[in-house]
Amino acid sequence: MFTRAIVRKPCEAIVNGLTTANLGAPDYALACEQHQDYVTALQECGLQVTELPALKDYPDSCFVEDVALLTQHCAILTHPGALSRKGEVAYITAALNAFYSSTQAISDKGHAEAGDIMMVGSHFYIGLSERTNLIGANEIIRILSKHGLSGSTVKMKELLHLKTGVSYLENNNLLAYGEIMSHPDFAEYRRIEVHEDEQYAANSLWINGTILLPKGFPNTLKAVQQLGYETREVAMSEFQKIDGGLSCLSLRF
Ligand code: GLY
Question: Which runs of E-coded beta strand occur in 113-209?
Answer without folding.
Answer: 117-120, 123-128, 150-155, 166-168, 173-176, 190-193, 205-207
